[in-house]
Amino acid sequence: MHHNRKLSESIGVIGTGKMGSALVRGLLKEKLVKPEQIYAYDILHEILMELVEETGINAALNNLRIVEQCSIIFICVKPQVFETTLQKLRTSFTNDHLVISIAAGVPLTTIERLTGNARCVRIMPNMPFQVGEGAAGFSLGTRNDNRDSEIVELVFGSLGKVFQFPEYLLDAVTGLSGTGPAYVFVFIEALADGGVLAGLPRREALILSAQTVMGAAKLLLEQNVHPGVLKDAIMSPGGTTASALQLMESRGFRSILIDAVEAATNKSQFLGRNNLSLSDQ
Question: Which of 15, 37, 151, 155 is the most buried (most CB within 10 A)?
Fold first, then answer.
């Protein structure tokens, strides 16, 4: 989607946990930047130095150095330490900085309040970004320009699928793709349990289940057709698929998933209204 595009800016990453590390690896794997363009800091020195050794990026002495050195800054810290991390840096940000926050449940008003005059973006990525197959929604703040959305789409588009939404829809993104991998893991586990019940060895049943989910998703995305079309192609008259789907429909399988997304969306809205982070629960 973004072939031969590169970023010329210096990149700062505050927090090199799973998402921060995945971001660094993705940027380098897709050759969007060179290692020397990236500066990173984490309060856990050992985790930071492991990433530096692996990738060749620069280790910053502290977060302030990142703000001084970099024009695009990814905030990859946990929501509960977001405010304390950025408070000390507030006066160092300028309108030359693009700040991209992945902290779940932290609204743009908070991000903008803590980053001075910086241009701010809030993004809700999900766990599969760690393997370059993520899904995300993002929202721009009040001070952004078109170039900022291009940067977000370039970076996160190289690590999966990304879409721009008004901020109020990020709760729905949380309910669908943010927490969605957990629903899929339960589905994979249950599918494998069914295989074991039918006599398959556990290890092979789990691999067959995971591969089936991955393959079906890839087929859907590549053929770009309605999922019902592919379902109908598998479902022979009076066959095994028809029997299985009839049972699933009778037990409310679709309704359960729809209700799950709605419940997670509502919870995300509640946490946001009450200034709680998603990780507080």
Answer: 15
